[in-house]
Structures are given as C-alpha cells and as structure tokens.
Amino acid sequence: MDETIARTRDNIVKKQALTYEEIEAERPYGAVDRKLYVANLHFNMTESQLRAIFEPFGPVELVQLPLDLETGHCKGFGFVQFAKLEDAKAAQSLNGKVEIAGRTIKVGFSL
Questions:
Q1: What residues have CB less than 8 Å from 95, skipping those under 6 apart?
Q2: Could you list the residue ranges that cross the membrane (predicted)?
Q3: Which of 9, 59, 62, 11 is nearest to 35 (CA)?
Q4: For the purposes of burial, counting CB atoms within 10 Å of the CB of 82, is it exposed (0-12), middle (13-18) or buried (19 or more)?
Q5: What global pTM score does this model have?
Q6: Among 11, 27, 94, which residue's Cα sits nearest to residue 109?
Q7: How far is the C-alpha of 108 from the C-alpha of 91, rounded, in Å?
Q8: What is the pLDDT of residue 11?
Q9: What is the pLDDT of residue 24?
Q10: What pLDDT is attached to residue 12?
Q11: What is the CATH number of domain 28-109?
C-alpha cells in the first residue's frame, strides 16, 4: 500500500501513525470528558435543583435526571455536563462532601 497522500513539486508528504499520547494531546475535550455522574440523589430531586448545586463551579451545559416511568420521580442518579473540563474537575470535589435531603451524594466522571 502506498502511503503517499500528497505530492508537490519539491516534496512528498507521507502519512505517519500517531501515538495514543499524541492523539490525546491534540484532541479537544468532548462532552463525555466534561460529564459527571451524580449518584445517591433523593427521589424528589429535580433537574433545576441539581443544576443549582453544580452551577457555582461553572457554566452547566446539560442536566439529565432519569425518571421512573411509573412514579415520575428521580431514579436516584443523574448527569451534569459542564462547558469546561476544569469546571467538571472542580465539581468532582463534591464527592462525599454534600448531603441533600439526608443523602450524601457521590460525584464522579461519567464513563
């Protein structure tokens, strides 16, 4: 297989395989990288309440709070997506430190 991808009058440019580290260093952080998983939420928690807890750390792009189809209540977990990776990292510091309605919330990066 010919790896030549472009020819000019004076040179030939060839593709070169990048290492994982090089790819990661160049890659902009995507939504998945900025999304936190929040667990042990009270079943009466709302998206607006969850947003209010995390907004002090920075702009929140998205809040998802799965609801039980039968009761319409929170299933006890949710997701918070930040605009910036640094803000998501800072918000992760809430893990095990905040109690809401008698429940200590758990916060970590979403997989």
A1: 105, 106, 107, 108
A2: none
A3: 62
A4: buried
A5: 0.71
A6: 94
A7: 9
A8: 57
A9: 46
A10: 53
A11: 3.30.70.330
- Give the model's pLDDT for residue 111: 80
DSSP annotation of 16: -
Q: What pLDDT score does 67 carry?
A: 96
Q: End-to-end CA distance of the chain, in Å?
A: 37
Q: Helix or strand or coil: residue 11?
A: coil
Query: What are the C-alpha distances in Å from 101 to residues 21, 73, 78, 91, 104?
Result: 43, 15, 16, 19, 8
Give the C-alpha separation, 36 to 29, whole Å.
14
Q: How many CA atoms lie within 13 A of 17 on its CB side?
A: 2
For the chain, list residues with pLDDT below 70. Answer: 1-31
SS3 (DSSP) at 21: helix
* 66 backbone dihedrals φ, ψ, rounded to 5°: -60, 135
- pLDDT at residue number 91: 96
Distances (CA, A) of 26 to 83, 89, 110: 18, 19, 21
Q: Which residues of 7-32 are buried (b: 16+ CB within 10 A; e: fewer)?
A: eeeeeeeeeeeeeeeeeeeeeeeeee
Token couple for 109: 């990066």
